[in-house]
Amino acid sequence: MAKTYQVHVFGKPACDKCHTLNGRLDDLLQEAEWADFEKVYHDLETENGLVEFCEAECLNPQRVPGFYVSKANPVTGVQEPLPNPTPGAMTPPVGASALYTWVGIQTDYSATGRGVISPKMIEAVLRQAKSL
Fold it and tell me: Which of 8, 24, 60, 66 has the fewest Cβ atoms within 10 Å of its own Cβ atom?
């Protein structure tokens, strides 16, 4: 049976930060609190991964890795991206890493973000998704 939420992760095989994000998500999603979430990985070095990335229309290719969260429509069962209720907000702990359009995150390589997506940031995004 499909889960209520999907975390759509975009990354590349030889990317250390992508590997770290995947590992952190895998660890978090094993906890009972997140049982209604599943990870869907999109490899940007494949045609299918690039198509998914382009169709998402929300991540900057220079800020990979990143992810957005979708939720199953209760009527149709189709996964739909969750709209960000506060586009442009710099709310901690996600800050400038937050996606503008969808509930999600991308890597902030500035001096402030230092290219890190912490477990705390990931959990904040998942909590936001659950609250909608």
Answer: 60
Task: Report the b/e string of 46-61 with b at 16+ CB within 10 A.
Answer: eeebeebbeebebbee
Dist. CA 101–CA 57, nearest whole Å: 9
> In this predicted model, what pLDDT tens digit does every residue of 57-109 receive, in sequence order?
999 999 999 999 999 999 999 999 999 999 999 889 999 999 999 999 999 99
Q: Across-strand partners of 102?
A: 83
Task: Identify the CATH number of the domain defined by range 5-131.
Answer: 3.40.30
Amino acid 1: pLDDT: 65
Say whether pTM exceeds 0.70: yes
Residue 108 to residue 62: CA distance in whole angstroms? 9
CA–CA gap between residue 63 and residue 74 (Å, rounded): 32
All structural domains of the chain with their residue ranges:
5-131
Question: Alpha-carbon distance 123 to 45, whole Å?
Answer: 27
